[in-house]
Structures are given as structure tokens and as C-alpha cells.
Amino acid sequence: MSRQSFSGLSLIWRSLSKHGSWQQQWRKATPKPRYDAIIVGGGGHGLGAAYYLAKEHELTNIAVLEKGWIGGGNTGRNTTIIRSNYLFNESAALYDHSLKLWENLSQVLNYNVMFSARGVMMLAHTVHDIQVFKRHVHANRCNGVDNEWLEPAQAKEFCPPLNIQDNIRYPVLGAALQRRGGTARHDAVAWGYARAADALGVDIIENCEVTGIRRDAGGAVEALETTRGVIQSRKVGVCAAGHSSVIMAMAGVHVPLESYPLQALVSEPVKPIFPCVVMSNTIHAYISQSDKGELVIGAGTDAYTSYTQRGALHINTHTLDAICELFPNFRRLRMMRNWGGIVDVTPDRSPIIAKTPVPGLYLNCGWGTGGFKATPGSAHVFAWTIAHDAPHPINAPFTIERFRDGYLIDEAAAAAVAH
Amino acid sequence: MLLIDCPYCGKRPELEFSYGGQAHLARPHRPSELDDQAWGEFLYMRTNTKGVYAERWRHARGCGRFFNALRDTTTDHFLAFYKTGEARPTLDAAAALPATPAAERAP
Question: The pTM is what?
Fold first, then answer.
């Protein structure tokens, strides 16, 4: 299936006909009785996995099943921060693989995902923060991941709205800056992957919720029961984020996940004022400015597990208290919207991208509070895992069995949002 | 914010409490006799139920005591509160949940 190519020239050309000649970007597919592979979950990770399966592994009889609408889950609910400054070798390899894919993603997909390497600055407020961040800086440099230490004056120079006075409760004592980090347009990631996958023949099936997993006499996956009928497939990849436990329970697989609400909010739109991404783990402030002008603010997780996609207001106000101290000139901004997403958190705050004990069933979950940044890399290695029935070297350490064997990848410090 | 009914102190705002995760997980009496699979299950595997979930809370900024609650994780409504050591209450049909679209059931 050929698709219209997007370019500046085509935009100008079609504007002459009042934009009346744009095609739909992906088909509204109806389920076929059988597929070579099915991806459960139409977020960035799932759509991306389908795209890479079709593009790099020549499996084109694929469906993506989404119970709502594509990109309507955590892909559309996150704060779009992209970085790869994780502490351990395994994580640095995974997240930096992703960051390198981000850098060319718009060109590869012919879809503007608006990746902007504007720099991600993580603030230190205590002596412990300083020690931890410097350790991160050194570990990252050993892994070829850029990360540098800034003194408060340098942090202020990089981000002028930042308050570095020492008369606040938690003064800024320094910062770690990853210049290659930044943001991207979250919806465009889902749409771009959907469009590119559809062009390769992938069926994207919305409003189709999986209700059961059928297995053959040998225990292998043979079909999915859905709200739109039974669909046969011998390979099923699950990218269901907060609902991964629910899906895996259908196949009797235990997963070390707990699902928590994580909230975010945006301010009214203002002119460009905020040049980078600033994160403060210690006092819970995550902020950047979208191209529309809204300040995008990430709050923390609620204390309890839930599937409600909403959280409590005091979590948001706690974050806003911190934002107002760090950026006093935002104090009179009004907040426009807030929302929640359900994040699947593992005990070591690292994801699971792996085969499961059930033959033909593959799992990509446990991204917790920080899965958006990993979208292209996660999708890429997950597609490899499904196609080869074996993990890619990058995701080989991210198994379920690490919780049995004790090979944890403990990124609780780097995962940023306090759990 | 949740309103939590501590069995000892009565209804208090969520801010006074800390969350204790899944309830009724008994620590094995002889951990060293478990194999890795069983110990891993105890340490890390959780039902993460979508539906009625038995969970622990601690009235940390109050009486300090642990207790259990039944909460519907699809609505965040509490269905019962009970003391640690008591059996999980059975809910009558009226308190039963509306089915989720996929009719998932708590294990």
C-alpha cells in the first residue's frame, strides 16, 4: 500500500487546494481469522513493534489489537521526556539504543515526531543527590552516554527561569545535564508508527479488547479471544502497560508488577519561556514546555495500586509547590488540565522484554514511570525477540526470570519518579 | 484523596496512612528451605488484581497500626476494612462489582 509522502513541498502544494486531498493515514481494519503475529496494545511500544516486525523481519500478516484507541493509554498521557542517562550497563545500552533511534525517527517514518534534543537537566538538592548524580555522570561516560555535571550558576545559565538562591527549602546544589535528551510529540509517535506499519500491511484494530488466551495441548499460544471474536495466532506479543498483569493472568503467567496511577498536568499556553527539560527527583518536579506553549508538568505516583486512570489532587499540588519554589515566575500561571495513566512498576524499576514460560507468548512491560523515552528501542528489540523467538542481546538481561535468579537491574535511583 | 476507615481510629484522610501492598502474604517460616522459584514468588510476584483487592494500610500518622482493606481497584471504592489477623470478609452480592468490559475476575 502506498502512502502519500509528507514533506514541506507537499504541505504547500496541498494548501493550494485547501488541504482537501490528504488521504487517511491508516485503515480501520477488521480482524482476520488468523495472523502470523499479534501485538496486544496499540501504544507506541506495540505499534512500533508491529512496524519493526514488518519492516525488518518481513512478517507482514500482523495485527495490533487495541482495546480503546491507539495512543490513548500511556503514550498519550506521559510528559514526553527522552533521555538515556541510566546507571547500569544493561539499562544504558537499552535506553541509548532508543535515543539513537529517536534521532532519525522522523526521517525513517516520514512523520514529524518533533524530537527536540533540548537537553534534560536533573537537579541535585542534597549532598546525597550530588554524590549519586556524579556517580551517574561517570558511569554514563564509561558507557558512551553523554552526561555532565553543572554547578548551580551553570544550571541557571542553561535554564534561566531556574531559582538558584539558597533561601528556599531545597536549594539547587548542582545538576546533571544530558544534552542529547529532550522531548518529542507523544501522539505523533503513535500515529507515525501506525501509519508506517499500516503501509506495510499491518492491521490496526481498535476497540478490540483481549478477553482470553487459548493454548494448545502443549501449552503454546494458539488464539486470542477478543471482544471482536476469536483470532488465531501462534505468536502473541503483549505491550499492555498497566494491564499487563491482567493479560498475563489469562495465560497463567505470574509477573512481578504493580499498577499505579501516575499523573501529569499542563498549564495554560504561554510564549516560549522554558528552553529545556528540568527534573527534580528529590522534590518531585518534572517540567518542560510543549511547542503549543503549555508547561507540561509530571507529578508522582499515588501510594496505592489502581486501574482508574486518575489520582489524588494532593499529588499534583505537591509537585506544584516544588515548581513554584524552583520557578517563582510560574506562580501565577493557571493549570489547564490534569490526568492520570496506569503504570506497571517492577520491583527493580527496570522493564521486562522477554519470552515467557508460555511458548509463543512474549512480554514487554514494566516500564513504570518512564516508558515513553524507550519507545523506539523497546519496540525494535521486542520485534527482534518475537521474530527470532530469542532475545536481542540488548534485551537479554531484561527477563522475568531475573526475579527468580536475583539478577536485578536496580534502577530505582535513575527511574526518577519516586515510587 | 481516599477517605480511609481505620478500624481503631475511624475515618481519616489518606495523608495519614501509608500503603502496605497486597495483604495476606505470609512470610515463609523457613526461607532457607525454599527453592529460588518459591522465594522469588514470595518476594516479587503480586496478583495486581483489577477488581476487589485485599491490601494492607498502616495508620502511620495516627495509631501506627497495620490493618487490611478490600478496595475495588477499578473504582477506588473501599468495600471493607478489617483488622490484621482477621479473615478476608466475604462480600454480599449487593457489594459485588459491576463487571468490567472484559469481565475479568479477581483470582
Answer: 0.94
